[in-house]
Specification:
about 160 residues; mainly alpha; Rna Polymerase Sigma Factor, Chain: A; Arc Repressor Mutant, subunit A; 8 helices; about 75% helix; about 0% strand; globular
């Protein structure tokens, strides 16, 4: 399989993976393009692997983790008129606010915890696959997931108390 054939077949899934991993569309594009530059240079070897998609996902994760170690990028928050309703009486910003709440919760996690959560709960990957992507043991993956769930519960608790 050529690199172009691989991209045609897997690009949409890799873009979703990078987007879920980073939580930021623009950062996802940057991370994915950097990872694809790395893999294109090594495609002769990668293309012969049993699971080239798994290897490319691993490169995406390591690129993301490397990016997280660097200075954090400046982020701006969008503002909107929260009193606007559509014709059916629904708040059109509700979905955006829900995604924003999820992004804020995930932002409290370490990069490894976030990667483990995305791989487990969005891509339904088993511990062994996640361990291969994160270059750690399956037990460490379970530890990352356990700590992530605890951190998410703590971060979500004040929000739930405020809405009751």
């Amino acid at each position: 399989m050529t690199f172009d054939e691989f991209l045609r077949a897997e690009m949409a899934g890799l873009a979703r993976f990078a987007g879920a991993l980073t939580g930021d569309h623009h950062l996802a594009e940057d991370v994915l393009s950097d990872a694809l530059m790395i893999t294109s240079a090594r495609w002769g070897r990668i293309g012969r692997m049993d699971n080239p998609v798994g290897y490319v996902r691993r490169v995406v994760v390591t690129t993301f983790l490397s990016e997280r170690r660097k200075a954090r990028r400046r982020r701006t928050e969008a503002t909107a008129d929260l009193n606007v309703l559509d014709r059916a009486g629904h708040d059109p910003h509700e979905a955006v606010h829900g995604r924003d709440a999820i992004e804020r919760l995930l932002a409290n996690l370490t990069a490894q915890q976030r990667a483990a959560v995305v791989l487990r709960y969005l891509f339904d990957r088993p511990d062994e696959d996640i361990a291969a992507v994160l270059s750690c043991s399956a037990a460490t993956v379970r530890s990352h997931l356990s700590h992530a769930r605890a951190a998410l519960r703590l971060a979500a608790a004040p929000a739930e108390r405020g809405t009751s």
